[in-house]
Specification:
It contains eight helices and 15 strands. With about 240 residues, it is of the alpha/beta class.
């Protein structure tokens, strides 16, 4: 906490001795001011950008804990901003905001590398809950090329190989495989996988994880003698 003159006290959130900092990318001045005020009152340091180019400049020169990113922006849109950040190796958690309430738009946002998605209009307390959920996720170390046995995954070009054989994957198959590889040799539950690879709102009673694991096995395991995707009965799946 920081006490100012006149008895005014500000509190700042910190994690591991570092104050938590959020970048808001929103071109509508009223919404941006509303979010800045609310997040500052919750104890965050906040920067703001009004367009996609400014967002990339700020995100490239500062370290943020979460980026709140609108899609419809002047210059580069939110999809382009997110894709460019991920391609450059910036994996700061991204919460996308948009007035485009369709499944296709949500899927497009998640496939460009966003971690969560919130449709306008929204309640501030929901945005805050989603920001806090992103902050609770374990921080990962991101490398350009992930290797598990003879499997290699280039996380920038999205090229997947087993040995010298290049393997074609759909965007969702790739996202699932990359998540498994980043957590290689760990047992991951279906819930963990669904929450990290898909929009968790849709998958409480779905077998979509098992379906996509089967798709991956046909491409990653079936043509090769060594099998990498393992089922841990009663728990989930493990790569490696």
């Amino acid at each position: 906490m920081l006490e100012l003159t006149g008895g005014v006290t500000l509190r700042f959130l910190y994690l591991g001795g570092v104050f938590l900092k959020i970048l808001i990318v929103e071109d509508e001045a009223t919404i941006s001011a509303f979010l800045q005020k609310g997040l500052k009152e919750e104890g965050f340091f906040v920067d703001a950008a009004k367009d996609g180019n400014e967002a990339i400049m700020l995100a490239s020169s500062n370290q943020y804990d979460v980026i709140v990113l609108d899609i419809l922006l002047p210059g580069k849109n939110g999809y382009e901003v997110c894709s460019e950040l991920r391609a450059s190796g910036n994996y700061t958690p991204v919460l996308m905001l948009t007035a485009l309430d369709s499944v296709d738009e949500r899927v497009k946002g998640l496939n460009t590398g966003a971690d969560d998605y919130l449709v306008k209009p929204f309640a501030f307390k929901e945005l805050l809950a989603r920001v806090n959920a992103l902050l609770r996720r374990p921080r990962e170390t991101f490398e350009r090329v992930l290797r598990v046995s003879d499997l290699s995954i280039d996380t920038v070009s999205h090229t997947v190989r087993r040995g010298d054989v290049e393997i074609e994957l759909s965007p969702k198959e790739y996202r699932l495989l990359e998540y498994l590889a980043r957590n290689a040799h760990q047992v991951l539950s279906r819930t963990q996988i669904a929450e990290s690879v898909w929009d968790q709102d849709f998958f409480s009673d779905s077998n979509v994880v098992d379906v996509y694991i089967r798709y991956l096995r046909k491409k990653i395991d079936d043509p090769f003698p060594t099998k990498l995707i393992n089922t841990v009965r009663g728990f989930g799946y493990r790569l490696g």
